[in-house]
Specification:
Blueprint lengths: L16 H6 L24 H9 L16 H22 L7 H6 L15 E4 L4 E4 L7 H21 L2 H11 L6 H17 L2 H25 L11 H6 L14 E3 L8 E4 L2 E4 L4 H16 L4 H9 L3 H14 L4 H13 L3 H14 L3 H10 L9 H14 L4 H13 L3 H14 L10 H15 L1
Antiparallel strand pairs: 1-2, 3-4, 4-5
Length: about 450
């Protein structure tokens, strides 16, 4: 296993019992945003379904704790983590004495005997306040924590970029026994959007526009350097002689490039069809597709929501409101509306959808989407709002790594050091290996101040 990586060859939808048993939902809606009263909300889905949905995107980097990996190094790190937690608890009681595995077991700080493999020793480090292995870095709990950091970023990217792995995870989820209708509709909505915005024809159009842009840039550069004159008639052979398109790739579907004169946009020819360079071509096509889909299925919520994406103002919100009236429990629809209301600075409406999602179904992917959806306009840089919403999500899901790190960052930025330290302490209680990787709020501020001073 390479440095900083966590292998994820486990089946994504085998719900991890050890993680499930540690789950703590401190359900806190977000009244602090507007001191709003929490309205009557429907019953929250069970913990197992929250876990199942978020684990469909993968396991590595999802939780503060490392996933249960069947490797020698991972098992040793787990033992060292258990010893470190017990050792710190022991030193709080008896600070003058260094712990070892035997003492921790005999005094009741360990529930089971932990014995290192043959040829290896587990030793307490007074300086770092953790147990170390004599076998090297790969067995250190800090190595495991760093690997979780790396994997957490990969998890976040999967949430927003999707891909085959997520599709497989969704399908496994849908095949589970008694899967709730809420999850079925959630996945159906997301798949509909993917089908409408990532199909081959649209990808071909996007690639065509990219290549036409590259060709147009080459002609513009040749004109700027005096090789062509404005309005001059040119052919592709003329452009080729400049050497500026030596790496220009073939058009999709066997299309042919066509140029006429300098200043006219290049064209892609597909049989009888010509496509000109047009910066709005992709968005125009997607808008047209969305309107067509809604026209064919006027009461289908995913089609209504997709159409709302390409409308503006109250018109877009009205269409989305209709979709949510039909499928009120689809979180993707509510997060889309939440995003619209963030742009409009309608915090009362935003808070209503936020409360609904957090109360009913708060898996990690949705929390990450909420963070992005609320970064609209002034709210993107409003410290009080950002820190409040991030902390609310972190307290609801204290075992999700990305959410904890997000809350810590926003609290430090808002100069809420007491709250930031509370989040940091909670992380370290679950996994002391993060300690050298997460500087204290004071250290962060001092470092930023030093950087600003150096820059000046």
């Amino acid at each position: 296993m390479a440095d900083g990586e966590i292998e994820e060859d486990v089946e994504p939808l085998t719900i991890r019992g050890s993680i499930a048993s540690q789950l703590l939902f401190l359900l806190i809606a977000a009244p602090a945003l507007l001191n709003a009263q929490l309205a009557e909300l429907p019953e929250r889905l069970g913990t197992d379904w929250v876990l199942a949905y978020e684990q469909a995107y993968g396991i590595g980097g999802l939780y503060v704790d490392e996933p249960p990996l069947d490797t020698t190094a991972a098992k040793i790190r787990e033992d060292l983590l258990t010893l470190t937690k017990a050792g710190r608890a022991f030193q709080e009681r008896i600070p003058s004495k260094d712990p070892d595995a035997g003492i921790l077991l005999s005094t009741g700080f360990l529930e089971r005997r932990i014995v290192p493999p043959d040829g290896m020793e587990f030793v307490w480090s007074r300086d770092s306040r953790r147990f170390l292995s004599s076998a090297g870095r790969e067995y250190d709990i800090v190595f495991g924590a760093l690997a979780q950091f790396t994997a957490a970023e990969s998890y976040r990217e999967r949430v927003f970029n999707g891909g085959r792995r997520v599709q497989i995870g969704w399908q496994k989820l849908l095949e589970m026994e008694d899967v709730p209708a809420l999850i079925q509709r959630e996945i159906e909505t997301r798949r509909f959007v993917i089908d409408m915005t990532e199909y081959q024809g649209l990808r071909d159009l996007q690639r065509t526009q990219e290549l036409l842009r590259k060709l147009a840039d080459a002609i513009e550069f040749a004109t700027a350097t005096g090789e062509f004159k404005p309005g001059q008639e040119i052919t592709m052979q003329d452009v080729g002689r400049t050497g500026l398109i030596a790496t220009l790739r073939a058009l999709p579907l066997g299309g042919q490039y066509k140029v006429t004169r300098v200043g006219e946009p290049p064209v892609a020819v597909f049989g009888e069809v010509e496509i000109k360079l047009n910066p709005n071509a992709i968005s125009d096509r997607m808008k047209s597709d969305a309107e067509d889909a809604w026209r064919k299925r006027p009461t289908y919520p995913p089609a209504m929501a997709l159409a709302a994406r390409y409308r503006e103002g109250r018109d877009a919100l009205s269409v989305l409101d209709q979709a949510i009236k039909v499928w009120p429990d689809v979180m993707a629809l509510r997060i889309q509306r939440l995003s619209m209301n963030a742009s409009r600075l309608d915090l009362a409406a935003l808070n209503e959808d936020l409360d609904y999602v957090l109360a009913r179904f708060p898996p990690a992917p949705l929390l990450l989407e909420i963070d992005v959806a609320t970064r609209k306009g002034p709210l993107a840089v409003e410290p009080e709002f950002r820190s409040t919403i991030a902390t609310t999500m972190a307290d609801i899901r204290p075992e999700v790594l990305n959410v904890q790190l997000l809350a810590y960052r926003e609290l430090v930025r808002a100069n809420k050091f007491n709250e930031a330290n509370r989040i940091r302490d909670r992380l370290l209680q679950r996994h002391p290996g993060y300690e050298p990787l997460i500087p204290t709020p004071e250290e962060v501020t001092k470092s930023e101040h030093a950087t600003e001073t150096t820059t000046e």
